[in-house]
Each structure stands twice: as structure tokens, then as C-alpha cells.
Write a structure and sequence with these properties.
By secondary structure, the chain is an alpha/beta fold. It is built from 18 helices and 18 strands.
Amino acid sequence: MAQPVSDWDHHPQPLAPDSAPAPEYGTGSLADLLPTLAAGMAVPGLTAAIPELTPADRNCVFLIDGLGWEQLRAHPDEAPFMTGLLATSRGGTGRPLTTGFPATTATSLASVGTGRPPGAHGLPGYTVRNPDTGELMNQLRWQPWTSPKVWQPYPTVFQLAHEAGVHAAQVSSPTFENTPLTKVALSGGTFLGRLSGEDRMDLAAEQLAAADRSLVYTYYAELDGAGHRFGIDSDNWRGQLMYVDRLVQRLAEQLPPRTALYVTADHGMIDVPFDEQHRIDFDEDWELRAGVALLGGEGRARHVYAVPGAQNDVLTCWREVLGEQFWVASRDEAIAAGWFGRPDQVEQRVYGRLGDVVAAARDDVLIVASQREPKESAMVGNHGSMTPAEQLVPLLEVRS
């Protein structure tokens, strides 16, 4: 009879990179949404990748920053209108979309606008290394500046739609009109800036009615901001959710004929406790720092760039220290596991932007950097990884 294995003989195995729930690239990710809608309006060169969606002459995408599928389902009282639409998600299947990895705003907006996965559009994280300069680049704030067209050379779906005679418009905060991220991810057609959410909803409805074929995008950011500052278990966040629910209803009630409105998001969010068990400080951990030249990404989705020759040592160390809480992969392992798109979609110009080691959190933990990233390290709500709370987003539908 076999003897039981004692605790001191048991060596937990690190999480395998291919055990992470990779996004549904090609069938049900954010990158598949606009190509599907535009293909339904006969825009050349695009394929309807989400089979559950039915074509419409006029399409509107309302992207609510930070509205995860799990968070919406957990708050029916604060969001009664959107809760009533949950059964319509993803063409009436009642299922969510996946955002793409990492589940973060810059990456997701580029996926939405270009219709391509992160390994192709080239914005694969909050901060990534620029192989040409060796510096970390913040792709949300676009610092340090680099040529947007060089960094992301593909046309957006809005540009392709505009060239095909579809009326394309973006209705958002005036702050975003000339940002590099807008240029690489959402440019094409007409940009219309409005400060209030109500004005954006009203103008989006007007733009939908402006032509027989229309593709309109509108955006709201403050729910995400409340989550970062106060957490998704806060009155501030719930108040924002109540407000955005009213915005969705306001827009839905104004849709012109032959319109499909899709309400989605760029990522979900989780609250992470402020203690050493849940927040591992890279700046205070000599093991994690050993052999690391640059720390990129964000707390739940790290790109780790090793000094030359130390890649294997860094991978081994990070796996030993974090492997039961994070999926820790080499660059090639992450690509092979489909984290950034199908392996054949990860372009050579993007390859060097990915970390030598990529770490994605499974548990409610962060790798903070209290000295290098003081503002980010102080956030209550966080996102980036492939857990359902971060990765799944709604695709609510209203038709007129």
C-alpha cells in the first residue's frame, strides 16, 4: 500500500502558461467586434468574426471603461437597465466577450479600433519596452513620445469604414481628440468632443441618424477612475455605475431606425487588499529584482525585461517565487499559449516589446513597485490579467 506523501515532500508545481484562460481571439474578443459590425455594412476587407451578431445598417459601440461582466452581474440594483439587457449579450447568447491580454485600457482600445490582437497592433501592455531605445514606454500616456504611425501602422476600422462610404464618428471627451492613443486606435471619420455624458449620448444618437450607414463610437471613463481610486466595493463606484446605467438607457431610447447599440468595456476590475500578502513590492524584493533591467506592465500583468544573459535565471526565480499565484511564462511560452493572439499573429516588430518574462496574476495579488510607480501602487482597484473578473466584458445589445 502506497504511503501518503508528507507535506515536506510536496513541492507545488508552478502554474503552466497554457493553463491560463487565453482570450477568445478570432471568435469572441474585443478585437473581433468592429470588424464584425463593419463587415455587416459591406466594408471591404473585413470579416464577421463573431458569428452571433446580426448585421445592421447603423451600429453604435458604447464602451464603458472598467465595466466588467462579473461586476455588472453583481450589481443589479445599481444598474437595472443594463441588467435587463444581460440576456442580449453577444447576440442573445447571454455570454460575455473577452478583452485580450493584458486586460488594460491602451491594449483594449487598440484592439477595438484596429480589429487586431495585441501581438499585431503592438500595444501589448500598460508600459512596454521600446526595442529601438531600450526605454519603457507608457502606451496610455504615450511617454516618452514616439511616432504613432511607426508604433501602430495599421488603419483603424473607422478609417476603412469612412473610405467605404460609411459615416464614421467618435463622440468622447474633448481631452482625447488629439492624443496619440486616439490617433493609433480610434481615428477615422469625425471626432466630436463633449464634456457631459448626457451630451455624448444625445450627439451619438444624432450621428447615427446622419446617414443610411453609420458607425459611431462613444466612451465613458469615470467608472474606471472611481474603481482605481476607491475600489469596486465603494459607494463612489456604485454611484458611477448608477449614472452610467442611466446614460445607456438615454442613448437606447434615442436610437434611429435600423440601429444596433452595443454596450461593452475594455476590462473588468478587482480590489486588492493593502497588505504584504496581497501586494508584493518589487522595489523591496531582492529576489525578484535580480537580473531585471526593466519592469513593465502593471501590477497584475507584468512584462519583465532581463539584463542580457539573465533571461533564464529571471524566469526560474519568478516561477519559484510567484508560480503558485501567477502564470509566469517566457516570452515564447506566452506567445505559444495564445496570450497575445494566435502565435502567427505576433509580429516581429512587436516581439521585442514583450517581456522576456511575462507574469499574469491568477490570485488576488499584485506586484507593485512602490518607488518606481507610487501612484499605480496606491490604487485600490486593479486589472490586467486573465481572470474572469478582469477578462470578461459584456456585449449588451439594443436594436431599433
